């Protein structure tokens, strides 16, 4: 907990220093699913950011209480509450960025794919609202299964004639956060100095950590590669089982979601050199229309896709293994939007 607080405090201090020398305006961020297990801690973290002037919270229940609670925190960010569909317009109007953690959580024995039917309908409804009321906003999808909900969102925007592939992101940051943490612990490194790109998708075997590209450079035995890769891929299940049916990875996902939102807002307000991995429309792997890789973020969203870089033999095999599964996940999302 102390390390978590220290890292967030350092991030906020750096952001505040940068803002003090800039002339940019703060921004409106809308959280759809703000009263849920991820939405509440995510909103708490966003409320502390000097980058955000207006935090608009939407959920079908309990939103007024969450908003009232957060509004008592002595930061300058204004918090507003919006409940049920009639108020979705007011939540989204003039939003610069929308983050969507809405959906049902994983339970023991469930895969992300098991969540598809319920969460796909929720995401389609909310994406339609975004396409209609804030078509130029950055859209950050947390709702699982991301491998399918991002294509659903993209198809909704296409159907409404407002699709911009540079502005729709599947937030896979938790995979990077986990990879950084697990490698730092296993190699006795300062976690603040560790950076591991994680590519592919955001479920099971589709998650591919590129340990050969670790910074600082680290050597791994074949056994370590297998163990770390498997743990990163199955880390969500590790949390679900540890909570014994009482929840999923909510706190770590909120932290990762906040990190991605802050990076995107800083880039949108003109800060240069900001890179994050995300699941986006891509041609990096020809067979897959969406793929997560390191991205350079800019004022208009994706400024550059850095691609895969040089892969080890172990990672090449991992890439081959993930393609069929990720292709199936993506196609499932596209089909849902067409036939639902």
UniProtKB/TrEMBL annotation:
InterPro entries: L-lactate/malate_DH (IPR001557), Lactate/malate_DH_C (IPR022383), Lactate/malate_DH_N (IPR001236), Lactate_DH/Glyco_Ohase_4_C (IPR015955), Malate_DH_AS (IPR001252), Malate_DH_type1 (IPR010097), NAD(P)-bd_dom_sf (IPR036291). Residues 27-170 form the Lactate/malate dehydrogenase N-terminal domain. It comes from the Eukaryota. Keywords: NAD, Oxidoreductase, Tricarboxylic acid cycle. It holds the Pfam family Ldh_1_N. It is an enzyme of class 1 (oxidoreductase). The keyword Oxidoreductase applies. One of its GO terms (biological process) is tricarboxylic acid cycle. CDD domains: MDH_glyoxysomal_mitochondrial. NCBIfam families: MDH_euk_gproteo. Belongs to the LDH/MDH superfamily. MDH type 1 family. This is Malate dehydrogenase. It comes from Oopsacas minuta. The lineage of its organism: Eukaryota, Metazoa, Porifera, Hexactinellida, Hexasterophora.
């Amino acid at each position: 907990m102390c390390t978590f607080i220290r890292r967030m405090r350092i991030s906020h201090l750096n952001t505040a220093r940068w803002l003090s020398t800039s002339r940019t305006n703060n921004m409106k961020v809308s959280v759809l699913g703000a009263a849920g297990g991820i939405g509440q801690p995510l909103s708490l973290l966003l409320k502390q950011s000097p980058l955000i002037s207006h935090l608009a919270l939407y959920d079908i229940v309990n939103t007024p209480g969450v908003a009232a609670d957060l509004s008592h925190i002595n930061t300058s960010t204004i918090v507003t509450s919006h409940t049920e569909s009639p108020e979705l317009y007011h939540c989204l109007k003039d939003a610069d960025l929308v983050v969507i953690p809405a959906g049902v959580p994983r339970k023991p024995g469930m895969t992300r794919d098991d969540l598809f039917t319920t969460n796909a309908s929720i995401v389609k409804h909310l994406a339609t609202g975004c396409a209609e009321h804030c078509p130029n906003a950055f859209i950050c999808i947390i709702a699982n299964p991301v491998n399918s909900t991002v294509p659903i969102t993209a198809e909704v925007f296409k159907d409404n004639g407002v699709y911009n592939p540079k502005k729709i992101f599947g937030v896979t940051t938790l995979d990077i956060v986990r990879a950084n943490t697990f490698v730092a612990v296993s190699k006795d490194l300062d976690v603040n100095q560790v950076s591991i790109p994680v590519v592919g998708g955001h479920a099971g075997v589709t998650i591919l950590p590129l340990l050969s590209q670790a910074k600082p450079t680290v050597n791994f035995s074949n056994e370590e590669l297998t163990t770390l890769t498997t743990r990163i891929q199955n880390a969500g299940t590790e949390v679900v089982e540890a909570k014994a049916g009482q929840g999923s990875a909510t706190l770590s996902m909120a932290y990762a979601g906040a990190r991605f939102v802050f990076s995107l807002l800083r880039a949108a307000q003109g800060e240069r050199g900001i890179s994050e991995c995300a699941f986006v429309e891509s041609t990096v792997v020809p067979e897959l229309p969406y793929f997560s890789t390191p991205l350079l973020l800019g004022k208009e969203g994706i400024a550059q896709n850095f691609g895969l870089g040089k892969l080890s033999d172990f990672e090449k095999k991992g890439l081959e293994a993930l393609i069929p599964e990720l292709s199936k996940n993506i196609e499932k999302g596209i089909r849902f939007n067409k036939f639902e």
